[in-house]
Design goal:
Length: about 400
């Protein structure tokens, strides 16, 4: 019994530390981000390359490319560049008619990192900023203007505010809320306390020379954004966040796709924990708090796993009369729910109904399954399909 109680205390200590960490940044997210100082060239119009890797994305890439051209940014100051990987010939021909630039690539094993590297090797060095989107992303009309302003403030890496393009299923609603909670905690909250915003794989912009110098060393099968984060933060490069630069992203619509996507994410998280644990601990003692904090984030459990574990712990504690579980897990569960309340936009929270609540245990189970499938994601890119069903914008 002593050993069991000791294990419970250790487990609750871990979940308690994680819950308090999330709450602190959720509370901080209610504050304003720290402004960056203006640089002498704050009003300069920078030339931008909007890079859109598209692997078998025939169903969505035409709309994304057309909508990308609708930016209010000067038309002669940006190019939409579709990196066509395994697209149908009819899709490639239609893209050239829009017109956007098309860079055709082909690999034995496709990854986003390979596609970006191939494109950067072919493109001229006339750009100042590289913007990376997913094939399903739709930018609000002023996104490039906001990125330009941020670079005028001295940033060399910024993350836009990725929001849901669709909430047409219960899974999509929960996925949309999950992303907004992460936006609030790991982007808005971190910037409010002077730390870097987390990158998310799309809707992000880089100084072009920095991106071109960095990408050849990025060979990730999955989670290339995490590798970029680790490499840049270890160098002392900070990331800004643009909460009003909206990039609409398609949320997963089914449990099967949810499991596939999370399998890729968990595999990447564990991979970069192993690679960066030692250097991250050293960084904590040498003053690179940004890098150390990013490495710490790789030991955080996904929010739905934390929620499910604490809920089950509190229930077991109540049923079997365990004060440690009932008080420890129950108290942490209340704090976690408060964290979600502070982080989730009200308009999305109002979409939660009985159907969404009933989905939570099923998605918790899918997450458990995704942990067992991690080996698949280590050596094979698990593509998340888009446009399988009609979607509606928020």
């Amino acid at each position: 019994m002593f050993i069991l109680n000791l294990l419970l205390v250790v487990l609750l200590g871990y979940t308690g530390f994680v819950t308090v960490y999330l709450f602190i940044f959720a509370a901080a997210g209610r504050l304003r981000s720290r402004p960056a100082p203006l640089s002498p060239d704050a009003t300069r119009i920078r030339r931008m390359a909007v890079l859109i890797p598209a692997y078998r994305e025939d169903g969505v890439i035409l709309e994304s490319a057309r909508q990308g051209l609708a930016q209010t940014y000067p038309t002669d100051a940006f190019d939409i560049i579709v990196i066509a990987d395994s697209l149908q010939r009819s899709t490639v021909d239609a893209l050239r008619q829009i017109p956007v630039q098309v860079v055709e690539v082909s690999f034995d094993q496709s990854t986003k990192a390979k596609a970006l590297n191939a494109a950067l090797q072919q493109l001229p060095d006339r750009y100042d900023v590289g913007v990376v989107l997913d094939a399903d992303n739709l930018m609000a009309p002023d996104v490039l203007h906001q990125i330009n302003a941020a670079f005028g403030q001295g940033w060399s890496v910024v993350q836009g505010h990725r929001v849901a393009k669709n909430t047409n299923t219960s899974v999509a609603v929960l996925d949309a809320i999950s992303e907004e909670i992460n936006n609030h905690i790991f982007r808005q909250g971190h910037r409010a306390l002077g730390l870097s915003a987390a990158l998310i794989g799309s809707g992000m912009a880089f100084d072009y020379s920095l991106l071109k110098d960095l990408m050849p060393s990025v060979q990730a099968v999955g989670g290339f954004d995490k590798e970029i984060e680790m490499r840049l933060l270890s160098r002392g490069v900070q990331f800004g966040y643009l909460p009003d630069a909206l990039v609409y992203d398609e949320k997963v619509q089914s449990e099967a796709v949810f499991e596939r996507q999370r399998t890729r994410w968990i595999a990447a998280q564990i991979k970069y924990l192993k690679l960066n644990a030692g250097p991250g601990i050293k960084a904590l003692f040498t003053g690179n708090i940004d890098y150390a904090d990013k490495v710490f984030q790789t030991v955080l459990p996904p929010r739905i796993l934390l929620l499910g574990t604490l809920a089950m712990g509190a229930l077991v504690g109540a049923l079997f009369g365990s004060p440690i579980l009932l008080v420890g897990a129950g108290g942490q569960l209340l704090l976690l729910l408060l964290t979600f309340y502070l982080s989730a936009p009200r308009e999305l929270a109002r979409k939660i109904g009985p159907a969404e609540l009933l989905k939570l245990p099923l998605l918790f189970g899918r997450f458990i399954k995704s942990i067992y499938r991690m080996k698949t994601a280590r050596n094979q890119f698990l593509h998340t399909p888009h446009g399988a069903e009609p979607v509606s914008k928020l």
